[in-house]
Amino acid sequence: MIDSLLIANRGEIARRIIRTARSLGIRTIAVHSDVDATMPFVRDADEAVCIGTAAAADSYLRQDRLLDAARATGAQAIHPGYGFLSENAAFAEAVVAAGLIWVGAPPASIRAMGLKDAAKARMIAAGVPVTPGYLGGDQSPDRLRAEADAIGYPVLIKAVAGGGGKGMRQVDAAADFAEALASCQREAAASFGDDRVLIEKYILSPRHIEVQVFGDAHGQVVHLFERDCSLQRRHQKVIEEAPAPGMDDATRAAVCEAAVRAAQAVDYVGAGTIEFIADASAGLRADRIWFMEMNTRLQVEHPVTEAITGIDLVEWQLRVASGEPLPRRQEELSITGWAMEARLYAENPSTGFLPSTGPLDRLHFPAGVRVDSGVEEGGAVTPYYDPMIAKLIVHAATRAQAAQRLAAAAAGTQVWPVRTNAAFLARAAAHPDFVAGRVDTGFIARHLDTLVPPGEPSAAIVAAAAAAIVPAVTDDPWRALRGFRINAPSAPQIAVEVAGNPYVAAPATLDDAEIVDGILYTAGEAWPFGPRRADHIGGASEADGALLAPMPGRVIAVAVVAGQKVARGERLLVLEAMKMEQALVAPFDGIVAELKAVEGAQVTEGMVLARIVAGEE
Q: Minimal CB count within 10 Å: which of 38, 166, 437, 496?
C-alpha cells in the first residue's frame, strides 16, 4: 500500500481523498495557492505546501511546482482528484518519470479518450454505439457549418478536448451557427488550449446516463452500475442519482457491458466513467443509447455510486495504484436502495444564476445527510475557483424516499450572506415530474419558472419576520400601526423590512422557518429582516444606460469602442467569473458615451463598465 500521498487538487475533493487516505494509514500532503492557505483541506492534511498565487495557472496547474512539492515532502504518490490536471496525460507521464505513483488512468488511456473525435473512432472499432455526427479534421467554419446543415438542426458543437460543459453549445437554427461556433472555440481555447470542435446530432429527449467502470493492472475491468445525470443547466450537472430511473435489467446489462468493452478497448486501469446519451422519447432502450465520451478520472458524482454499492471508490483507487487486484469481482457487486446528490453552488438563481462571493457567516446543513464540502462556516467563497460549496448526498430504500430526503436536505440548508441555489434544488427535487422519474436534460429549462424562487419574500415570510420583531416594536405606536384603519379591527400591523424593502404585515409564525442572528431561513432561502427604518424611502434607482458589472470577474472581450452606435440587445462586452461567461448587452438603441471596460481587467460587482445614451452626442 502507498505510504504517502500528495493531493494535486483543492477544496472538497482534496478533503474527500484525505479522509480515505487517513483511514488507510497513508500520510497526506496538501498543496495550495496563497489564497487557499487557511482552507479546511490544508488543515486536514498532515503536511501542506504553498505552490503559487490565486490563479490556477500559477498554482494548481503548475506541473513543475507540484512535482517539486512531492520531492520536498517525500511523497510516494500523487492523486490528481478531478478537474485541473486529472486528465492531463503529460502530467501523468511526468509523475511516473519522476519515480512516483500516479493514482489515475494510464497516460495512454487518457490520450486515447481525451480527444472526443479519436475516442469515438476507437469506440466504433470496439463495437460500442456512438452518436451520429462529424469527427473530421477540417475545422474551417464553412466545413463545420456544412456538416451541421447535413446532420440537421438542432446540433451540438463540442470542444474536442472539452469536459464539464465547457466548450459546448447547442445550435437550434443555421442562422445561429456562426456565433455559437466562435463562442465555443474561444471558450475551448481558454479552457483547454485547443479550439478544435466536433458536431453531434442533438437528441430531442435526451437522458444523460453514465456507467462507473474500474480496472486494475491485472487485466480485470468491472462496472459499478449506472448513474443518471440528466438534471443539468447549461450542460453542467445539478442533481445526479443512482441507479437510473426507468432502467430495466436487460437495458442495464447492455449498457454496462458496452461500458466495460469501452474501458477494455483502451486497457483501462483505475476509476473511469463511460458517458452515454439516451433518446428517452420511448423510455430507456438499449438500441437508443449511444457513447458520448469517457472521463478518465473520478467523477464529482461518485458518492451516489458509493451509496448504492457500499464501495469506497477512493480506497479502490489507492489499492489499484498500489498494484493490488480489484477488491471484488463483478458478480460480487450489487445495487442497494437509491441515492441522489445535489450540487450546492454559490450563485443566485433569481439573478440568472450569477456567481455569489463573500464570507460564509452562516453555513449549516441538516442532520442525516452526507455533506462533502470544501468550505466551512467562518470561511469565504472567492471568485478564483469553482463555485460549488458542497455536495448533498442522500440514500434511501426507494427513489421516492430519496427524492423526499434530498428536497428536505436542500430546504434545510442555511447559508449567509453568500447566495446559493439551495431553494432551487429543493424545488427541483420536490417537483412532481422529477418525483415521477420524468427527467431529461431539458427538465430544468422547461420548469425554470417554477424552480427559481421569486426575488421577493412571500407574504408568509414577511409575516414571520414581523412576528420575530414584535417584541422590539410593540412599545412604538408609529411602528406597530395598531388600529390604523378607521372602523377596522385592531389587529396588530407591523412595519418591517425584509431584504432591504419595506412591508406592513400582521405577525404570523412559519413552521419551517428558523431565525439565526437576524436572518430568517426557510425552504433553502435566507432573508435578512428588521424593523422598518424611519428614513426608508424605497429602492434606489438605476442610472439609465449605465452597464454595471453584475458579478466580480475578468473582462474577456470588448466588442465596441467609445462613440460607436449600438442597437438594443447588441453584445457590448463579456465577463468571466467562476468558469461562467456573462454577456452584457445594450439596453436600448444609442451611442457608447463612456467605456471603462478594458479587456483582461478585473472588475468588482457594481462597477460601471459602460454607459449608453439615446440618440447622438
A: 38
